[in-house]
Amino acid sequence: MTKRMQTRVALAAVLAMAGTLGFSQSTGETLYKAKCQMCHGAKGLADTPAAKAMKVKPITDPEVKGFTEAKMIEAVRDGMGKMQPYKDKLTAAQMKDVVVYFRTFLK
Ligand code: HEC
User: Fold this and answer.
1) DSSP assignment, residue 87?
2) pTM
3) Can you give the C-alpha Rg of the chain in angstroms?
4) Region 44-72: what's the mean pLDDT?
5) How far apart are CA 92 and CA 86, in angstroms?
6) Which atom of ligand 1 is nearest to the CA of 35?
7) Quick check: CB of 95 below 6 Å from ligand 1?
8) What's the pLDDT score for residue 17?
9) Rounded Cα distance, 93 and 91, in Å
10) Is the pLDDT of residue 30 over 60?
11) Is the pLDDT at 91 greater than 60, yes or no?
12) Residue 11 contacts by C-beta under 8 Å, 6 or more apart in sequence?
């Protein structure tokens, strides 16, 4: 392997890690954009085609607004409606981070 290729491989590894583990506080945001946005919308408004197809409720819906943080984490962990469970895909910390980010749309 040439030196330049090694550098590139190392850089790719760092970027991949930053994407999954997250070195910054924006882990929740990164996760949300990668895994949730297509169904819940950029601002949680469920305004994407996938959201409409799956009847995802916007975060502004009274029913969703009434969800506590713990209840949302539970929905993500165990799945809800057509949403798959994330318990085998995300760590408890990641589920919390992503829900905390999701809830910023409530404000
Ligand atoms: C394949 C589409 C899809 C993806 C991807 C998805 N969801 Fe959902 N989500 C749904 C559906 C459908 C429901 C249940 C219907 C509803 O009440 O909105 C739901 C429900 C929820 C709820 C319960 C409150 C609510 O809005 O009804 C939360 C919280 C939630 N999702 C968060 C997430 C998070 C966080 C992610 C990313 C890790 C995610 N979802 C990824 C489709 C999806």
Assistant:
1) T
2) 0.82
3) 16
4) 96
5) 10
6) 37
7) no
8) 56
9) 5
10) yes
11) yes
12) none
Nearby residues of 86 by Cβ (< 8 Å), 6 or more positions away: 35, 76, 77, 79, 95
Averaged pLDDT for residues 12-41:
76
Cβ(39) – ligand 1 distance below 6 Å: yes
The overall average pLDDT reported for the chain is 88
The answer to whether the CB of 76 falls within 8 A of the CB of 87 is no
Other beta carbons within 10 angstroms of residue 76's beta carbon come to 24
pLDDT at residue 3, rounded to an integer: 75
Ordered by where they begin, the domains of the chain are 25-106 (1.10.760.10)
Instruction: Round to whole Å and give the CA distance between 49 and 9.
Output: 36
CA 58 – ligand 1 centroid, Å:
10
Contact between residue 71 and residue 65 where contact means Cβ atoms under 8 Å apart: no
Instruction: Report the atom number in ligand 1 closest to the C-alpha of 98.
Output: 35
Whether residue 79 has pLDDT greater than 90: yes
Work out the angle between the directed axes of helices 92-103 and 69-78 (0-180°, nearest 10).
130
Ligand 1 mean position, distance from CA 17 (Å): 25
